[in-house]
Amino acid sequence: MIMRMLAAGGLPVLEDGRREADPDNPRGYFELEAVKGSERDASWVRAAPGKTVKVISYLLRHLPADLEYKVVFMRRDLDQVVRSQRAMLQRLGAPPGPSDEEARAELAEHLVDVESWLEGAPHMRWCGVGYARVLAEPRREAERVARFLDAPLDIDAMARAVEPDLWRQR
């Protein structure tokens, strides 16, 4: 959702379109395949100045530390994340993975770790954005993100990009 908002607001998004929209994310993923290999090779970053790129939290620490980043960190209720992942795995016919309780505990531990790391990473500035809050107050959150990014974004277009009907795993 945040990538769709940023694109609607006028930021250039670096994506390759390889991961197409599907029932789990009908508006698309806004992903760049090269990002997934960042642990081994993050050279793609050097070709992306000024671009908005979706990077999952597990890969943030693999971005080159000699560059500066502004990170918009989307936070979701962990129970909803686990339900969403479970539904996606089931739809794909993949093994279910750990129990919901184990998955939630792993995610919670990871979030504490990554947010602590972000706080101490001098090349990272970050802003936490709550998923439910964006759905409840899209304009207010769009304004907050634009202030953080210090970018002349189209706030109305960002707010219109929010689709509460797509919030299925409550």
What would you say this structure looks like, in words?
The chain is mainly α. Helix 2 crosses helix 3. It has a single domain, classed as Rossmann fold (3-Layer(aba) Sandwich), CATH 3.40.50. A two-stranded parallel ribbon has the order 1-2. It is built from 6 helices and 2 strands; from the N terminus they run αβααβααα. The protein starts with a helix and ends in a 10-residue tail after the last helix.
Order of strands in the sheet with most strands: 1-2
First CA to last CA: what distance? 16 Å
The global form is globular
CATH class: Alpha Beta
The class by helix and strand makeup works out as: mainly alpha
Which key terms come to mind for this protein?
single chain, about 170 residues, two-stranded parallel ribbon, 2 strands, about 40% helix
Explain the layout of strands and helices.
Elements: H1 2-9, E1 69-75, H2 78-92, H3 100-120, E2 124-130, H4 131-136, H5 138-149, H6 155-160
Short description:
With 170 residues, this protein is mainly α. The protein has helices spanning 2-9, 78-92, 100-120, 131-136, 138-149, 155-160; strands at residues 69-75, 124-130.
